[in-house]
Specification:
374 residues; alpha/beta; seven-stranded mixed beta sheet; 14 helices
């Protein structure tokens, strides 16, 4: 008898998350040296971690034989102080993705519903499916969340609404007014999750933390993977009212974040200069890529994050062509966008190499002429 006969039936058709292709895989498959490859697929920080974070991590490695602080006292305390909360408002996760799983464990049963935008981070749907819940995907005209339509999609079975702002993979941004109008009408039985993995790249980000201070059923997710450059450490955090955090803590495994990760995150959190440099480099590189796409006649979605979604014709073919040239981007087939790729903002020389290789692709030239003629 197959084990599938006893496993949860909704797992059979679950498609696993496909991350950006690792540099090591490309080097091995193409016979290239790792230093010859640039990865612009996973929205990573090309500056790397803060020097202060590196020093803290090196010091902590010397104590690798000792279990980490399972409660993350000092990091949670620092996060709370930075945003004007108490430690009881903060939960740590193995990346902010794990906190999405905590929320599912705590509140989703088979047949429940979550609501997302049509082109939102695919992990929301994957996690819901893991618990037998149904994902309602609301159309997103202009590749931006339609909060009015998302509110209208709420039913008595709705347990969670996920709002990524800026949104991955489209880079679009919701305004404070849009969010406020939405929060005025969303019912109390729904947990609203604001995924703000890219909020540090915004000069004037909307204030979603005020809903936590008001005692609303809101979780704000943030990460150290992006502007902090600590993606390899897998550490993120959630902010919510204490009662909600207490519930989520019940779903968390002991020692879910390592001591090295906690030390790096704690030091990086305080390094405003490193974050400023990363933000400035990102905005400059993003503006440059978008100007070049416009000159090439390529449609793109104006971005507020550290990546740009650009329409190239055959996304899979362009991905493969660039891969052979040692450049890793992200094709968007898994998001239902087969004509698009998402490119992360790299260092200046990486951006220039990407643009130079992109302009040489013959299938892209056809797409550019067609776009320019419309």
């Amino acid at each position: 008898m197959s084990l599938w006969n006893t496993a949860h039936p909704w797992l059979r058709d679950l498609v696993s998350y496909e991350p950006g292709k690792p540099i090591e895989d490309v080097a091995r498959e193409l016979g290239l040296q790792p230093h010859e490859i640039i990865k612009l697929a996973s929205n990573e920080n090309p500056l790397g971690p803060s020097p202060k974070a590196l020093a803290a991590m090196r010091d902590t490695i010397e104590r690798s034989h000792i279990y980490p602080d399972g409660g993350g006292y000092y990091l949670r305390e620092a996060i709370a102080q930075k945003f004007g909360f108490e430690r009881s408002n903060v939960i740590l996760g193995c990346g902010s993705n794990e906190i999405i799983e905590f929320i599912g464990k705590a509140f989703l049963n088979a047949g429940d519903e979550i609501i997302t935008a049509r082109h939102a981070f695919v992990v929301y749907k994957l996690m819901a499916t893991l618990f037998g819940a149904v994902t309602i995907e609301v159309p997103d005209p202009g590749y931006a969340h339609d909060l009015e339509a998302m509110a209208a999609a709420v039913t008595p079975r709705t347990r969670e609404i996920f709002i990524a702002n800026p949104n991955n993979p489209t880079g679009t941004l919701l305004s404070q007014d849009e969010i406020d109008r939405f929060m005025d009408i969303v019912p109390d039985h729904v947990i609203v999750v604001f995924d703000e993995a890219y909020y540090e790249f915004l000069e004037n980000p909307p204030d979603t933390l005020k809903y936590i201070r008001e005692g609303r059923n809101v979780v704000v997710l943030r990460t150290f993977s992006k502007i902090q450059g600590l993606a390899n450490l897998r550490i993120g955090y959630g902010l919510a009212k204490p009662e909600l955090v207490d519930i989520l803590q019940k779903t968390r495994q002991p020692f879910n974040t390592s001591g090295v990760a906690q030390a790096g995150a704690l030091a990086g959190l305080a390094d405003d200069e490193h974050q400023r440099k990363t933000r400035e480099m990102t905005i400059e590189g993003r503006d440059h890529l978008q100007r070049e796409f416009a000159v090439m006649g390529l449609e793109f979605v104006p971005s507020f994050a550290n990546f740009v979604l650009v329409r190239v014709g055959d996304g899979k073919a362009v991905f493969q062509s660039l891969l052979k040239r040692g450049i890793i981007v992200r094709d968007m087939n898994s998001y239902g966008l087969p004509e698009w790729v998402r490119v992360s903002i790299g260092a200046a020389e990486q951006n220039e190499r990407f643009l130079a290789e992109l302009k040489l692709l013959p299938n892209l030239a056809i797409q550019s002429r067609e776009a320019a003629a419309v």
